[in-house]
Design a protein that fits this description.
340 residues, alpha/beta, Rossmann fold, Dihydrodipicolinate Reductase, domain 2, 2 domains, six-stranded mixed beta sheet, five-stranded antiparallel beta sheet, 14 helices, 11 strands, 41% helix
Amino acid sequence: MRLLFVGFGTVGQGLAELLLENHEALRNEYGLNWTVVGIADMQKGMVYHPDGINLTKALETLKAGHSLNELPQAYVRGDALALIEEAEADVMLEATYTDIKTAQPATAHIKAALQRGMHVVTTNKGPLALHYAELQAMAKARGVHFLYEGTVMSGTPIVNLIRETLAGSGIQEIRGILNGTTNYILTRMEEGLSYADALKKAQELGYAEAVPDADVLGWDALAKVTILANTVFGATKKPFDYPCDGITKISAEAIAEAKQKGFRYKLIGRVWREGGKVHASVAPMQIPLSHPLAGVMGATNAVTIKSRAMGDVTVVGPGAGRTETGYSMLIDLLHIARAH
């Protein structure tokens, strides 16, 4: 399987490390024989060779603070799109930055790869939230896979769980904690910190960005909710078609008062079917302390899936991380390997 990385930051390098660490096991136990033919990253440089590149050397070069363009196999004939058009690859691994308003440049990368008959694995929320139906139709027309486990809960299985293990169960609702940063902030506020102090601590730990709007205003959770609405329930709406409210208006006093009454505040993303229509929302909710979601603290994610056959099934796990999100791409690669 010839692999082409487009985007080689934290997630891409996390996957690369997993591939190298588990090379023999992946080959012997799962039949995954891989070769990386190219890497394209707008900040870290580009390399390409149809016979494969030295992935270990590429990682060492970046860790030493150098650019991939310094390697002998540097690609200097264009940008990432040009490389996708030229590369002889079986799978494109798209892990560029997320732009939830335009879904670019990721969508252009994915379309170019699908048009060339490549399978695509992505962790980018933008294309799924804005163009899922179109991209899935392109993949189906060309007989290739378009997989995206890492877009919702990183390596914690939710997309594949719903698609495969819970297939035919009659899913009625999905609700949960889809943003670890806000869950961490609410946890610290319950311990007595103010919103401002809890946010500052989250930023110091690297959970929250310097400009934390995507997390605290609920936009990150909204993108994930939209992905679930589109991929599970067949909706065709875009993120800001749904109501969204973040955690900035919640006080430590309100959190303490809710707990005294047997509830705990959580930022909940919810998707459900009602009256033949698909609905979705993101908002702070008071969850009974007896519910599994109420016990999920810190930066952890969790989702409860309600279905006719199984009732409530709750999945808890990490929603971010270098290795965890890289692992989500590895799972999708193994899915492709099994299918072929």
